[in-house]
Amino acid sequence: MNTKKNQAPRAHKAVNLGRHEQNCGICSHEKREDIERDFISWRSPITIASEYGLANRATVYRHAHACGLFLKRQRNLRAALERLIEKSENVEVNASALVAAIVAYGKISADGRFVERTERLDLNLLFEKMNKAELLEYAEKGLLPAWFQDAAGPATAGNDAEIENDF
Fold first, then answer.
1. Per residue in 29-48, pLDDT tens?
2. At what angle do helices 57-67 and 32-40 cross, to 10 degrees?
3. What is the C-alpha to C-alpha distance for residues 81 and 84, in angstroms, rounded to an integer?
4. Is residue 122 within 8 Å of residue 164, measured between CB atoms?
5. DSSP code for 27
6. What pTM was estimated for this model as a whole?
7. DSSP per position, 90-149
8. Cβ partners under 8 Å of residue 56, min gap 6
9. Helix-, strand-, coil-residue percentages of the chain, each rounded to 5
């Protein structure tokens, strides 16, 4: 028996774009740009088909494959996570799933790349960059140079900020 379950996944063939455009209900649709934007923004193909009067979700998928919209959609993971986060108050979502979505959202750059952000500041290195006069002023008055405060951030601004060092 040769059912779809038993078949190996087919590799996508190159699409004849001219033929596709002739037969595609989206290419000739007056709201083609809106349809494509909705797909790239992770709206459900079933919802898209229904909203724009298309035959079915297969029409949306066929058009997306032909026009290379899947790559754009994959780069737009932030939109999918935004939808999940926005619907969190209307849908029963457990806290760990919501937190994971928010954390993932924070790690995706504006251009759709997943970026691990790490911030570490070694104050010892900043102190080593201070010249003798700056070190003396810090020792006598507790004042840090402006460049030090800029590099270390707002936690070191002001005279009452405490800085812990591992000397």
1. 999 999 999 999 889 999 99
2. 90
3. 5
4. no
5. T
6. 0.52
7. TS---HHHHHHHHHHHHTB-TTS-B--------HHHHHHH--HHHHHHHHHH-PPPHHHH
8. 46, 49
9. 55, 0, 40
User: Which pair of tokens denotes residue 44?
Assistant: 């459900």
The answer to whether 45 and 60 are in contact (CB under 8 A) is yes
Q: Helices 45-52 and 57-67 meet at what angle, rounded to 10? A: 110
As given in the structure block, the two tokens for residue 104 are: 């993932």
Beta carbons of 88 and 82 less than 8 angstroms apart: no
CA 137 to chain centre: 45
* pLDDT tens string 107-146: 777 666 777 766 677 778 888 888 999 888 888 888 888 8
Helix (H, G, I), strand (E, B) or coil at 152: helix
Residue 157 is encoded by which pair of tokens?
Answer: 């601004």
